[in-house]
Amino acid sequence: MLVITCPYCQEAREEEEFSYAGEAYIARPAVPEEVDDATWGDYVFHRKNPRGWHWEQWQHVAGCRKVFAVKRHTVSYEIAGSWTLADGKALYLEEQA
Amino acid sequence: MPDLKATQVELYQGLLAGSTTGYPSLDFDLKGLLGKFGRFMPPGFYYKTFMEPVKAWPIYEKYIRKAAGYGRAPTEADPESYDHLHHHIDVLVVGGGAAGLWAATLAGRAGLKTLLVDEQAEMGGWLLTERRSRIDGLSGMDWVNQRLAELASLPNVTVLPRTTAFALHDLNLVQAVELLQDHLPLTERNAALPRQRLHKIRAHQVILASGAIERPLVFGYNDVPGVMTAAAGHSYLNRYGVAVGREVLVQTQNDAAYEAALDLALSGVKVTLADARQGGAAAWRQQALKNAGAELLLGHGIAKVLGDKSVSGAQLVKLDGRSNQVVGSGPRLSVDTVLSSGGLTSTVHLFCHNGGRPVWNQQQLSFVCPDEGRENIACVGAITGRWELSDALSQTHAAVAALLLGHGRGSTGKAPAVASEEVAAPRAIFRLPDGKPEGHGAKAFVDYQNDVAAADIHTAVRENYRSIEHVKRYTALGFGTDQGKLSNINGFAIAAEALGKPIAEVGTTTYRPSYTPVTFGALAGPHVGETFDPRRYTAMQASHDARKAEYEVVGQWMRPWYFPKPGEDLHAAVNRECLATRNSVGVMDASTLGKIDVKGPDAREFLNRIYSNAWSKLDPGKCRYGLMLDENGMVMDDGVTACLADDHFHMTTTTGGAARVYSWLERWHQTEWPELKVRFTTTTDHWATVAVVGPNSRKVLQKLCTDIDFDKDAFKFMDGRSGTVAGLPARVFRISFSGELAYEINVDANYGRYMWEEVMKAGAEFDITPYGTETMHVLRAEKGFIIVGQDTDGSMSPNDLAMSWAVGMKKPFSFLGKRSLLRSHTAGEGRKQLVGLLPLDPKVVLAEGAQILSNTDDTVPAAMQGHVTSSYHSAFLGRSIAMAVLKDGSKREGDTVFVWAHGKSVPAQVVSSVFVDKEGVRQHA
Ligand SMILES: [Zn+2]
Q1: Contacts of B670 in chain A (CB under 8 A)
Q2: Which residues of A touch B820 (CB under 8 A)?
C-alpha cells in the first residue's frame, strides 16, 4: 500500500483514498483521422510498463476527485513526487528531452 | 476454530478442545500406520499415486485432507465481530522481550510516538522463562516490570500484548492482530465488543525485536509423545510450575539447554544431559549441572527414542568429534521425557516479507537479519543472532541510539548492564546420526506438522530436486500453520548435506505473510455484509415492500424484480405486467438510472466529444439517446440526455454504469480537455424517477399535472418539460424504453414515495400496474432495445448493433472511439452483429448464453457463430423471442440457425431484433 500526496489537498494519504488512472502524458493524436492504424493502435493499446521510474495518473476519488501526476518507481515503489498534471508535464517533458 | 497450536492457546474456564489430526482416530492413526511402513509412502507420493485419473482427484483429496489432519472450515457465518484500527506513528517495536522493551523505552523517552506489540499475554519474552539473569542489578522480571511501568507513564507510548505482527508490507505498513476476548471464559465475553482487532500500522521506523525460536534436533522416533524442545520444558517449569517428567533426558549441541537441565535438576527432576559436543558447555555450566545432581554424557547423541504412545527411554550412541558419524554404542536410558535443543533460529519473517534476505551466520548456526537492517527497519537482539542477553541489549542500545540520532533526538544514556558469561560454541549438527544410512533406521521427523522426515528430504534430492523451493514443495517441508518455524533450518541443513553444498548456498525458502494464521474475520473486520457491499434503496422502497415486490440486486441497488399477486410465480406475474402495460398503463421505479448534471458554456462541445452522436443541434426541451464509446470504438454505456438550457444537460446512464461514467467524464475533462468550461455533478440520489408507461399514461399525467400541455403535438416523443406534478416541481421527459407512449417524472428524491402513491391513485381507474425489472427487460427486448453489458460485452461497435444512426461521423471533433471504427478489423467482415431470433417452436425459450451453430453438426470443435444475449417469453406476442449476436448477422435474416444448450440443439430463425411495432407508432401516439 502506497502513501500518496495529493497536490491539491496537500496531504499524504493512504492509497485507499486514490484510484489508479493509468500512464500519464499519453498524447492523443491531434487529428486521429490522419494517423495510420498502427499509430492509432499504439496510442490506444500500447503502454510503457517500465521497470523503473514511471509517470502515472492517480485520482483522489475519496477526496477532491482531481487527477494528478505521480512519478513512481515500479520496483522499489518509491514515489519521487506528485504534481498537478500541468506542473508535472513540464518536468516530464524535460526528462524526455 | 480449526488448526490452532495447543501450546499457544490461553486456557480459560470451559474451554472445549479436540484434536484435528489423526483420522480416523488418535488410536488408529492412518498416517501413523503409513509412517511405520514409511517406505510405502515416499515424498511425492500424492503426486505420483493420485494424479490419474484426474476425475478421481476430488475423491482422493477429500480423504488425503482428512488424513492429513487439516481442520474443518466452519460452514456457518461467523457470529463474532472484529474491528480495524489504523496507526500513524513514529516507531513500531515488534517483540516485547528484553531487546524490544529497551528499544521502546529509548524511543519513548525521546518523545517519539511509539507502539510496542507482542504476541504473548505477558511482556518479557525469554525473561519470562529464564530466571537467573540480572539486569542493572535487578532480576529479569523486576527489570521487565520496571520497563512496563515506565512505558505506561509515557503518554506517547502504547503497549499491546496478545498482538501478533503478522505481515510487513512496503513503506513500513505492518499488520498486527490483537486477540481481545479469545482468552476470556465464555461467560465473561462481551458479544457487543469485537473478538479481535486488526491493527494497520504505518510507522516511520520499524524496530524488529522478534527474537528467536529454539529448534529441535532431528533423531529417530522424535515424534513420540513426550519429546519436546528444551525451551518448552524450561517454560513449563518456570512459567507454569509444571515438571514435564520425572526422569528427563536433555539432548543438546549448545550451552543454552544446560539452563533448562539445571532448573529441572534443581526442582528435583532426575536429569541426564547428552551433549553432542566432545567438550561440552563452558566449564562453569558443566560444574553447576553436576552440582545439582544431573548426569552429563559428552559426545553423545540419541539414536532413537523408545516407546510407542509415550516415551519410555532412549538409545544413545557415541558421536565422532568432527564428522557426523557414530563411533560406538551408548547407554540405553530409561526416561519418560526427552528434551532436545538444536540451537536457536532467528525469527526473520517480517524482515523478509517485502524482499529482505536473511544471511547465514555460521558461528550462531542460524539465518539472521543483518545488523544494519534496512531503510527505516532496524533489527535488534536475537533476530540478529545475539543469543546472549548482554550482547543483545548492548546491540539494541547502539542500534536505537543511532536511529534516534538520525531523528535528531539527543543522547540516550547507558545500555543496561548485564554480566557477560563464558559460552562454548555450538556444534553444527542438525540430524543426529544413528549409524545407519538415511531411510534405513528409525524414522526421524524434520517437520512435525507435515510429517516430513529426514529421509524424505534425501529422497527429494536423489530425485534431482536441487532448489530448496522445489524440495519444500515436493516434501511439504515448512508448509502449514507453523510455516517452518521449527523445521526450516533443520530441513535446509539436511538438504545442504544431501546436495553437498554449504547451508548458506542452499539458502532459504521465501517468507511470505502471514507469520501466523489470521482469521478471515479479523482481515475483513467491519467490512462484511452491507458495510462491504452496501445495498441502495430508492425513495419508493416502502411502497414496493407494501406491494410485496420481489427484488433483484442491480449494481448495489435493490430493484423490484416483479410484483407477484397471490399465487403468481415470476412468469405469471411478468406476463400480467407486460400485458397491462401494453394494453393500458404500467408504472416502474426508474430512480436507479445514473444521473449526471452537466453544466457550463462548453457542456455541448463536451457531449459532442464524449458521445458518438451529435449534440450541437439539440434544443432546450429536447432529449436524445446517446451512445458512449471507449477509445477502442466499442459501446461502453448508453442513456438519454435532456437539454435543459443551452449550457445545461441532464445526462442519464445505465444503473450499473453510473459511477464508471462519472469518473470517465472527469478524467477526460481533467486530462485531455481541461480548457473546456464544464462541470459534472452526480445527481442519481437527488432525483426520484417514476416511469408511467402505456397507452393510458397520458391520461394519468393529465390528472396529476395541469401546467404542462400533454397534447401529442405540444409534448412530443423525446421532449422534456418542467412543471408541477401532484403539487411538486418536476421534470417530465417523454421517453420510452418499452416502445409505448411513456413519461418519466423526476422529483426531489425526498418526495419519491409520495409521487409513486399519487401516480398509483391517479392510475387506479386504468388499473395501473406496477412492474419490475423483468417486465422492463421483456418490453425492451420486444422492441430490440439493447442493455449495455447484457447484449454487449465490450467488443460490440455501434455498427455491430445496427446503430450507426447514433454515430455522427461528420462531427468536427474526432469523438472518443471514432478513429477506431475505421480500423480494418472493426470496419471489416465477419464481426458478430445483433440480430433477433425466433425459435421455430414458439413455446421454447432459448437459454441465454447458448452458442449458435449453422447446422446440426455438433462435432467438437463446432464452428461457433455467436450466442444468445437475451431471451424471453413475450405474452404480448404469445411466443418466445430472443436477441443474439451472430457472425455477419445483418446479412443473415431468414436463415435458420441452431442454438445449442443443455445437450440439445434448437432451431431458430434469424429475424430483425424489433419484434413489436417496427414503425414506432405506439411511442409516438
Ligand atoms: Zn485531493
Answers
A1: 66-67, 85
A2: 40, 44
In CATH, what class is B594-682?
alpha beta
Domain at B828-925: CATH code? 2.40.30.110
Question: What does the alpha-carbon distance between residue B384 and residue B783 come to, in Å, rounded to a whole number?
Answer: 74
Pinpoint the residues of chain B covered by CATH 2.40.30.110. 828-925
Query: What integer pLDDT is reported at residue B64 of this predicted model?
Result: 55
- Is the per-residue pLDDT at B845 higher than 90? yes
Bridge partners of B158? B115
Which residue in chain A is spatially nearest to B354 when comparing CA positions?
A: A76
Judged on CB neighbours under 10 Å (0-12, 13-18, 19+), B645 is exposed
Those residues whose C-beta lies under 8 Å from the C-beta of residue B456, and which sit 6 or more positions away, are B42, B43, B446, B475, B477
What residues does each domain of chain A span? 3-96
Q: Does A29 touch chain B (CB under 8 A)?
A: yes
The CATH number of the domain covering residues in B216-342: 3.50.50.60
What kind of architecture, by CATH, is found in domain A3-96?
2-Layer Sandwich (3.30)
Q: How far is the CA of A19 from the centre of ligand 1 (A)?
A: 11
| Residues β-bridged to residue B880 | B873
Q: Do A33 and B667 touch (CB under 8 A)?
A: no
Q: Do B819 and A67 touch (CB under 8 A)?
A: no
**pLDDT tens-digit map of B362-385:** 999 999 999 999 999 999 999 999
Task: Give which of B380, B274, B259, B419 is closest to B335, Cα–Cα.
Answer: B274
Q: Where are the beta strands (DSSP E) in B151-267?
A: 157-160, 163-169, 173-179, 196-208, 212-214, 227-229, 247-252
Chain A residue numbers touching B814 (CB-CB < 8 A) = 31-33
- Looking at chain B, the domain(s) classified CATH 3.30.70.1400 span 594-682
pLDDT digits (tens, 9 = 90+) for B861-899: 888 999 999 999 999 999 999 999 999 999 999 999 999
Choose among B171, B631, B823: nearest Cβ to A37: B823
Distances (CA, A) of B408 to B401, B404, B405: 10, 6, 5
CATH 3.20.20.30 assigned to domain B82-211+347-406? The reply is no
Q: Are the Cβ atoms of A33 and B814 closer than 8 angstroms?
A: yes
When CB atoms are compared, the residue of A3, A14, A85 closest to B671 is A85
pLDDT at B48 over 60: no
Residues of A in contact with B86 (CB under 8 A): 14
Residues B170, A61: C-beta atoms closer than 8 Å:
no
Residues of chain B with CATH 3.30.1360.120: 536-592+688-784
Asked if B818 is an interface residue toward chain A (Cβ–Cβ < 8 A), one would say: yes
| CATH number at B536-592+688-784 | 3.30.1360.120
pLDDT in tens, B791-814: 999 999 999 999 999 999 999 999
Q: Which residues of B593-606 are buried (b: 16+ CB within 10 A; e: fewer)?
A: bbbbbbbbebbbbb
Q: What residue has cell string 524482515?
A: B351
Taking an 8 Å cut-off on Cβ atoms, the answer to whether A29 and B819 are in contact is: yes
* Distance in Å, CA A79 to ligand 1 centroid: 17
Cβ–Cβ gap B667/A67 under 8 Å: yes
ipTM over 0.85: yes
pLDDT exceeding 70 applies to what percent of chain B?
A: 94
Residue B65 pLDDT grade (very low, low, confident, very high; cuts 50, 70, 90): low
Is it the case that residue A69 has pLDDT exceeding 70?
Answer: yes
CA of A21 relative to ligand 1 center, distance in Å: 14
Q: Per-residue pLDDT tens for B809-819?
A: 999 999 999 99
**Chain B: residue nearest A77 by CA?**
B170
Whether pLDDT at B28 is above 80: no
Give the gap in angstroms from C-alpha A32 to the nearest C-alpha of chain B.
Answer: 6
B823 Cβ under 8 Å from any chain A Cβ? yes
**pLDDT higher than 60, residue B423:** yes
Instruction: Tell me what the pLDDT averaged over chain B comes to.
Output: 93
Is B846 in contact with B839 (CB distance < 8 Å)? Answer: yes
